[in-house]
């Protein structure tokens, strides 16, 4: 419960939520400053950025735990909730509201029900959510037996310990979420020149701008551990040079200060899945894989002629389940191809879990500045 603060710190109501394999505070939009610059100063102070340890805030000293969700009732016809995702960095003073985050998206409806933004239905509650970052819409469903949120259950997702109640996300239109189209270069495979080198890649955005590359083209197996890849300074420098080179080609402009496109190294599956991945987000290797990154990689796997051809093992049929292996497990994505255009993904659906960790107020220093 809110209480009076006899100090010069500013209290801001929030709930610290885990969404999928990410974590961060969620705010009702009206509890934050309306001015974007003032809002961003509050978010930076709440997370404790810029500081590598984020010792003076709620951040977890990692990009996956330096995320924020901002939610409001929607005024868009047919939409229940608007969601603005903000990506912060531990050691930077940046607040990036251009990309999506499918993991944090899983926590939006539970947060909204916790805060009373929507009524709770008996059995299950479904809401249509508009991601303001990119204009993407999706239907999210949570379990609410007896009109009460259920967080405990048997659903398991790799990268999160234990089990929880399932949250289903049905994406309605993710193609070209940030880029101009699903295949922003106009082709399913491109040859990229950078730093005197040449490499093949698939440039794709089905929810997250991605550059998909063969690990073998970088002298790797694609099964290296996260710590080993993060310690490979030369590899990270090559990937960043390539990322900067393709920014304009993907219609993203100068991406030097942006958290996208993500870079993904692929290899044949080794654990019964469809494809093995090592994703960089974009400067460190992800310990798993982001939700929308998994959707995008899975989409590349079903497009004829992409960089995944000859590597991915994908089932036949118009509706396919693609299992994306990552360093800590796998992520299954259900895709349905367009009946008329086999190079178009008509539907993408997946399962996540989420829960509130703490509710209360985050105390913001420098109240006069925000």
Overview of the molecule:
By secondary structure, the protein is of the alpha+beta class. It folds into two domains: 10-166 and 354-369, Diaminopimelate Epimerase, Chain A, domain 1 (Roll); 190-347, Diaminopimelate Epimerase, Chain A, domain 1 (Roll). The chain is built from six helices and 17 strands. It has helices spanning 36-47, 102-105, 108-114, 226-230, 233-246, 291-301; strands at 10-19, 22-28, 67-73, 81-88, 95-96, 123-131, 136-144, 167-171, 190-194, 197-205, 209-214, 262-267, 275-280, 319-326, 329-337, 345-352, 354-364. It has a 17-stranded mixed β-sheet that branches. A hairpin with a 7-residue loop joins strand 3 and strand 4 (81-88). It starts with 9 loop residues before the first strand and ends in a 6-residue tail after the last strand.
Feature tags:
370 residues, alpha+beta, Diaminopimelate Epimerase, Chain A, domain 1, 2 domains, 17-stranded mixed β-sheet, 14% helix, 34% strand
Brief write-up:
With 370 residues, the protein is of the alpha+beta class. It is 14% helix and 34% strand.
Topology:
Layout: E1 10-19, E2 22-28, H1 36-47, E3 67-73, E4 81-88, E5 95-96, H2 102-105, H3 108-114, E6 123-131, E7 136-144, E8 167-171, E9 190-194, E10 197-205, E11 209-214, H4 226-230, H5 233-246, E12 262-267, E13 275-280, H6 291-301, E14 319-326, E15 329-337, E16 345-352, E17 354-364
Parallel strand pairs: 2-3, 4-6, 11-12, 13-14
Antiparallel strand pairs: 1-2, 1-17, 3-4, 4-5, 6-7, 7-8, 8-16, 9-10, 10-11, 12-13, 14-15, 15-16
